[in-house]
Amino acid sequence: MVYSSVLTFPYFVALVEDIIFRGYLYKKMKDIKNSMWLAIIVTSLMFALFHIYSFLADSTPTNALYMSAAFIFAAVSCLGMEKIKHCTLLSVIIAHALHNGIMYGILF
Fold first, then answer.
1. Domain for residue 3, yes or no?
2. How many folded domains does the chain comprise?
3. How far apart are CA 54 and CA 24, in angstroms?
4. Which residues contact residue 19 at a Cβ distance below 8 angstroms, ignoring those fewer than 6 apart?
5. Chain centroid to CA 13: how far?
């Protein structure tokens, strides 16, 4: 039971985060403000700040880099959904889940 939850956790997190940040907040902000760039910047900052727990736990330059990478990943994900013909929320979720799975495997 524990083993299966360890294997599924990083993928579940990616699914939930992307549905919230890219599937809901990004689209809602883009519709309300009618600005793709503002929506990308604001929701990417929110995504990076959502990951601040790792920075607060250990405020090393590596964790500051991690937060910067989270912002860049979020911005590229939103931009990809806008500019790449077949990039959908599902493809962003898959990319995020693969990243989480690899990082989880390296760290644990």
1. no
2. 1
3. 24
4. 89, 93
5. 9
